[in-house]
Amino acid sequence: MLSCTDAQIWGLRSINSVMMHISVGKSKRVDIRDITIVAPDESPNTDGIHVQQSQFVSIRNSIIGTGDDCVSLSEGAEDITIRNVKCGPGHGISIGSLGKKGSQATAANIHVSNCTLTKTTNGGGSGFASNISFVDITMNDVRYPIIIDQYYCPHSECDAQASAVEVRDVKYIGVTGSSTREVAIALNCSQSVPCSGIVMDRVNLWNSNEGEEVRSHCISADGYAMNQVTPAVSCLTQRNLAS
Protein backbone atom coordinates (compact mmCIF):
# COMPACT_ATOMS: atom_id res chain seq x y z
CA MET A 1 0.00 0.00 0.00
CA LEU A 2 1.65 3.21 -1.16
CA SER A 3 0.43 6.82 -1.00
CA CYS A 4 -3.06 5.97 0.26
CA THR A 5 -5.43 8.06 2.41
CA ASP A 6 -8.39 6.76 4.41
CA ALA A 7 -7.64 3.13 3.49
CA GLN A 8 -8.99 -0.02 5.14
CA ILE A 9 -7.73 -3.60 5.24
CA TRP A 10 -10.27 -5.81 7.00
CA GLY A 11 -10.60 -9.56 7.34
CA LEU A 12 -7.58 -10.47 5.20
CA ARG A 13 -5.80 -13.81 5.54
CA SER A 14 -2.22 -13.91 4.20
CA ILE A 15 -0.24 -17.16 4.23
CA ASN A 16 3.44 -17.84 3.41
CA SER A 17 4.36 -14.62 1.65
CA VAL A 18 7.94 -14.74 0.37
CA MET A 19 8.56 -11.23 1.78
CA MET A 20 6.53 -8.73 3.83
CA HIS A 21 2.85 -9.61 3.98
CA ILE A 22 1.50 -6.05 4.30
CA SER A 23 3.54 -2.91 3.70
CA VAL A 24 2.20 0.59 4.34
CA GLY A 25 4.19 3.52 2.99
CA LYS A 26 3.58 7.25 2.54
CA SER A 27 -0.02 6.86 3.70
CA LYS A 28 -2.39 8.47 6.19
CA ARG A 29 -5.36 7.21 8.18
CA VAL A 30 -5.06 3.50 7.51
CA ASP A 31 -7.26 1.03 9.45
CA ILE A 32 -6.06 -2.60 9.59
CA ARG A 33 -8.21 -5.03 11.56
CA ASP A 34 -9.31 -8.66 11.93
CA ILE A 35 -6.49 -10.06 9.81
CA THR A 36 -4.53 -13.30 10.08
CA ILE A 37 -0.93 -13.57 8.88
CA VAL A 38 0.99 -16.86 8.86
CA ALA A 39 4.54 -17.74 7.81
CA PRO A 40 7.09 -20.34 9.03
CA ASP A 41 9.07 -19.21 12.06
CA GLU A 42 12.36 -19.65 10.21
CA SER A 43 11.39 -17.63 7.11
CA PRO A 44 13.46 -14.40 6.93
CA ASN A 45 12.08 -11.00 5.93
CA THR A 46 8.46 -12.10 6.24
CA ASP A 47 7.32 -9.19 8.43
CA GLY A 48 3.61 -9.32 9.11
CA ILE A 49 2.93 -5.59 8.83
CA HIS A 50 5.58 -2.99 8.02
CA VAL A 51 4.83 0.72 8.33
CA GLN A 52 7.06 3.60 7.27
CA GLN A 53 6.58 7.24 6.31
CA SER A 54 2.94 6.94 7.35
CA GLN A 55 0.76 8.57 9.98
CA PHE A 56 -2.41 7.65 11.88
CA VAL A 57 -2.30 3.90 11.29
CA SER A 58 -4.42 1.57 13.45
CA ILE A 59 -3.69 -2.18 13.72
CA ARG A 60 -6.09 -4.18 15.87
CA ASN A 61 -7.83 -7.48 16.60
CA SER A 62 -5.39 -9.55 14.57
CA ILE A 63 -3.23 -12.69 14.72
CA ILE A 64 0.29 -12.54 13.31
CA GLY A 65 2.93 -15.27 13.29
CA THR A 66 5.95 -15.02 10.99
CA GLY A 67 9.70 -15.52 10.70
CA ASP A 68 10.42 -11.82 11.20
CA ASP A 69 8.71 -8.91 12.97
CA CYS A 70 5.01 -9.29 13.62
CA VAL A 71 4.80 -5.53 13.26
CA SER A 72 7.71 -3.27 12.31
CA LEU A 73 7.54 0.51 12.43
CA SER A 74 10.41 2.48 10.97
CA GLU A 75 11.28 5.76 9.34
CA GLY A 76 8.48 8.31 9.54
CA ALA A 77 5.97 6.06 11.33
CA GLU A 78 3.98 8.39 13.58
CA ASP A 79 0.71 8.26 15.50
CA ILE A 80 0.40 4.48 15.33
CA THR A 81 -2.01 2.42 17.48
CA ILE A 82 -1.59 -1.34 17.92
CA ARG A 83 -4.25 -3.05 20.02
CA ASN A 84 -5.44 -6.61 20.66
CA VAL A 85 -2.81 -8.29 18.51
CA LYS A 86 -1.59 -11.84 19.14
CA CYS A 87 2.00 -12.10 17.96
CA GLY A 88 4.10 -15.22 17.60
CA PRO A 89 6.19 -16.79 16.43
CA GLY A 90 8.37 -13.99 15.12
CA HIS A 91 10.61 -11.18 16.30
CA GLY A 92 7.89 -9.29 18.14
CA ILE A 93 6.81 -5.67 17.75
CA SER A 94 9.78 -3.58 16.65
CA ILE A 95 9.84 0.20 16.64
CA GLY A 96 12.54 2.28 15.02
CA SER A 97 15.79 1.15 13.40
CA LEU A 98 18.90 2.51 11.80
CA GLY A 99 18.62 2.81 8.05
CA LYS A 100 21.16 1.71 5.51
CA LYS A 101 24.53 3.48 5.46
CA GLY A 102 23.81 5.28 8.71
CA SER A 103 20.65 7.14 7.73
CA GLN A 104 18.52 7.92 10.76
CA ALA A 105 15.12 6.22 10.90
CA THR A 106 12.82 7.46 13.64
CA ALA A 107 9.35 6.60 14.86
CA ALA A 108 7.17 8.58 17.26
CA ASN A 109 3.81 8.53 19.06
CA ILE A 110 3.40 4.75 19.06
CA HIS A 111 0.93 3.13 21.46
CA VAL A 112 0.75 -0.65 21.90
CA SER A 113 -1.85 -2.16 24.24
CA ASN A 114 -3.60 -5.41 25.16
CA CYS A 115 -1.25 -7.54 23.07
CA THR A 116 0.07 -11.06 23.66
CA LEU A 117 3.47 -12.19 22.42
CA THR A 118 4.23 -15.91 22.41
CA LYS A 119 7.60 -17.55 21.67
CA THR A 120 8.94 -14.43 19.99
CA THR A 121 12.53 -13.20 19.92
CA ASN A 122 11.65 -9.78 21.33
CA GLY A 123 8.69 -8.41 23.15
CA GLY A 124 8.40 -4.64 23.04
CA GLY A 125 11.48 -3.14 21.54
CA SER A 126 12.55 0.24 20.26
CA GLY A 127 15.59 1.33 18.36
CA PHE A 128 15.41 5.07 17.64
CA ALA A 129 12.06 6.40 18.79
CA SER A 130 10.17 8.75 21.09
CA ASN A 131 6.83 8.84 22.91
CA ILE A 132 6.20 5.11 22.94
CA SER A 133 3.96 3.12 25.28
CA PHE A 134 3.43 -0.58 25.88
CA VAL A 135 0.38 -1.12 28.12
CA ASP A 136 -1.11 -4.41 29.37
CA ILE A 137 1.21 -6.69 27.43
CA THR A 138 1.51 -10.45 28.06
CA MET A 139 4.78 -12.27 27.27
CA ASN A 140 4.86 -16.06 26.89
CA ASP A 141 8.35 -17.58 26.56
CA VAL A 142 9.85 -14.49 24.93
CA ARG A 143 13.63 -14.32 24.48
CA TYR A 144 13.97 -10.58 25.24
CA PRO A 145 10.67 -9.33 26.70
CA ILE A 146 11.77 -5.69 27.08
CA ILE A 147 14.63 -4.36 24.98
CA ILE A 148 15.86 -0.96 23.88
CA ASP A 149 18.95 -1.21 21.70
CA GLN A 150 20.51 1.94 20.29
CA TYR A 151 23.30 -0.20 18.88
CA TYR A 152 21.00 -2.33 16.72
CA CYS A 153 22.40 -2.46 13.19
CA PRO A 154 20.83 -4.62 10.45
CA HIS A 155 23.41 -3.51 7.89
CA SER A 156 27.14 -4.12 7.98
CA GLU A 157 27.84 -0.49 7.01
CA CYS A 158 26.43 0.91 10.24
CA ASP A 159 28.56 2.65 12.83
CA ALA A 160 26.12 2.42 15.71
CA GLN A 161 28.14 4.33 18.24
CA ALA A 162 28.53 7.34 15.97
CA SER A 163 25.01 7.17 14.57
CA ALA A 164 22.92 6.72 17.72
CA VAL A 165 20.09 9.23 18.07
CA GLU A 166 17.85 10.01 20.99
CA VAL A 167 15.49 7.47 22.52
CA ARG A 168 13.11 9.14 24.95
CA ASP A 169 9.76 8.83 26.71
CA VAL A 170 9.22 5.08 26.48
CA LYS A 171 6.72 3.58 28.94
CA TYR A 172 6.11 -0.04 29.93
CA ILE A 173 2.95 -0.38 32.05
CA GLY A 174 1.37 -3.67 33.12
CA VAL A 175 3.86 -5.92 31.32
CA THR A 176 3.86 -9.50 32.62
CA GLY A 177 5.06 -12.92 31.55
CA SER A 178 7.97 -15.26 31.01
CA SER A 179 11.45 -14.88 29.57
CA THR A 180 13.44 -17.74 28.07
CA ARG A 181 16.70 -16.00 29.02
CA GLU A 182 18.22 -14.66 32.20
CA VAL A 183 18.23 -11.05 30.97
CA ALA A 184 14.53 -10.16 30.76
CA ILE A 185 15.01 -6.38 30.54
CA ALA A 186 17.81 -4.94 28.41
CA LEU A 187 18.34 -1.19 28.08
CA ASN A 188 21.36 -0.88 25.82
CA CYS A 189 21.71 2.84 25.29
CA SER A 190 24.44 5.01 23.85
CA GLN A 191 26.87 6.72 26.19
CA SER A 192 27.00 9.70 23.83
CA VAL A 193 23.19 9.99 23.51
CA PRO A 194 21.63 8.26 26.55
CA CYS A 195 18.03 7.07 26.72
CA SER A 196 15.81 9.35 28.81
CA GLY A 197 12.30 9.30 30.20
CA ILE A 198 12.09 5.52 30.52
CA VAL A 199 9.16 4.53 32.76
CA MET A 200 8.29 1.08 34.10
CA ASP A 201 5.16 0.49 36.15
CA ARG A 202 3.78 -2.88 37.27
CA VAL A 203 6.28 -4.97 35.31
CA ASN A 204 6.54 -8.59 36.41
CA LEU A 205 8.75 -10.96 34.39
CA TRP A 206 10.00 -14.40 35.37
CA ASN A 207 12.15 -17.15 33.90
CA SER A 208 10.46 -19.82 31.80
CA ASN A 209 12.90 -22.34 33.25
CA GLU A 210 11.69 -23.34 36.68
CA GLY A 211 14.10 -22.43 39.45
CA GLU A 212 16.10 -19.94 37.38
CA GLU A 213 16.12 -16.21 38.02
CA VAL A 214 15.85 -13.20 35.72
CA ARG A 215 17.79 -9.95 35.83
CA SER A 216 18.06 -6.65 33.99
CA HIS A 217 20.91 -5.10 32.02
CA CYS A 218 21.13 -1.33 31.83
CA ILE A 219 23.59 1.03 30.15
CA SER A 220 23.15 4.82 29.91
CA ALA A 221 19.41 4.96 30.57
CA ASP A 222 17.50 7.32 32.84
CA GLY A 223 13.94 7.31 34.14
CA TYR A 224 11.91 5.83 36.95
CA ALA A 225 10.14 2.68 38.14
CA MET A 226 6.77 2.69 39.90
CA ASN A 227 5.12 0.06 42.06
CA GLN A 228 6.40 -3.48 41.41
CA VAL A 229 9.10 -3.91 38.78
CA THR A 230 10.65 -7.38 38.55
CA PRO A 231 13.49 -7.75 37.82
CA ALA A 232 14.64 -4.47 39.32
CA VAL A 233 16.31 -2.03 36.92
CA SER A 234 19.28 -0.35 38.62
CA CYS A 235 19.43 2.74 36.42
CA LEU A 236 15.78 3.70 37.07
CA THR A 237 14.83 5.69 40.17
CA GLN A 238 12.18 3.98 42.29
CA ARG A 239 8.98 5.97 42.93
CA ASN A 240 6.48 4.39 45.28
CA LEU A 241 3.34 5.97 43.90
CA ALA A 242 -0.14 4.57 43.45
CA SER A 243 -1.03 3.45 39.92
Automatic annotation (TrEMBL):
Gene3D superfamilies: Single-stranded right-handed beta-helix, Pectin lyase-like. Its main location: secreted. It comes from the Eukaryota. Keywords: Cell wall, Cell wall biogenesis/degradation, Glycosidase, Hydrolase, Secreted. One of its GO terms (molecular function) is polygalacturonase activity. SUPFAM superfamilies: Pectin lyase-like. The keyword Iron-sulfur does not apply. GO terms for biological process: carbohydrate metabolic process; cell wall organization. It is found in: Secreted, Cell wall. The active site is at residue 91. Belongs to the glycosyl hydrolase 28 family. This is Polygalacturonase. It comes from Zingiber officinale.
